[in-house]
Amino acid sequence: MTEDPPVQHMVLAVSTVIFSLRPHPDTGELTLWLPLVRRIREPFKNRWALPGGPLQDSQDLGEAARTAMRRTTGLQPRHLEQLYAFGDVDRSPDAPERVVSIVYWALVRQDEDAHAVDAENVAWHPVDEVPGPLAFDHDLIVRYAVDRLRAKVTYSPIAHAFLPAEFALAELRRVYEAVLNRALDPSNFRRQILSQGTVEDTGRRMTGTAHRPPRLYRSAPQSSRYSLTIEESP
User: Fold this and answer.
1) 225 falls within a domain
2) Do 13 and 55 contact (CB within 8 A), yes or no?
């Protein structure tokens, strides 16, 4: 008679991928960034990792994600959603228990990013220049989140989450360019966005510009039809 295998204890953790748009220090171009936390204990001591940690008994999942963001960056973005669950058996080989991580992503508006704080052992990095290898399977999580965001901007208005309530179409285009890491044709972009019905003219114009001020738009996400064909700038 064979014995049953020993029961493996399991820990539930929450990690958060926090995306923000910031100028690249070399080019000045708007770029997609995320914060990482340097681990101060084993396993993976001194490696960079995503903000997060074990789920406490008194926390729900969303609360744990918001707590990690507040503790590491001081940010409380409006846009927070559950991304995926990562639970490979060997993702935490040195841990005494199996760890399953529920991953959230947050999109930080540019006006929200002004309130970010620099906590100890926390640093922001462009998403295409993340210093690896990261702790655990966080390289995989970051790649998954970036690929998911770059895909989602082509079939949903999620890019609006990076902008304030009112914005110029050129500002929206720069968000797409930052997320996709490519220059887009301005005329084609404007035509496609206006045809989707996901933005509406506010009747106001941007102030403080040197030339003819551009029109201001706001999100109209009630549109159910969305498809963006990416055409790069010539």
Assistant:
1) no
2) yes
Shared domain check, 119 and 181: no
| pTM assigned to the model | 0.90
- Judge contact between 44 and 85, C-beta under 8 A: no
Same structural domain, 120 and 169: no
Q: Residue 44: helix, strand or coil by DSSP?
A: coil
Nearest to 155 by CA among 192, 108, 127, 182: 192
Strand partners, 79: 107
Residue 50: is it exposed, middle or buried by C-beta count within 10 angstroms (0-12/13-18/19+)? buried
For the stretch 130-181, pLDDT in tens is 998 999 999 999 999 999 999 999 999 999 999 999 999 999 999 999 999 9
Whether 35 and 97 share a structural domain: yes
Do 173 and 60 lie in one domain? The reply is no
Segment 56-91, tens digit of pLDDT: 999 999 999 999 999 999 999 999 999 999 988 877
Q: Tell me: do 163 and 185 sit in the same domain.
A: yes
- To 5 degrees, how large is the angle CA 102–CA 104–CA 110? 165
Name the residue range of residue 136's domain: 10-152
Tokens of 36: 């990482």
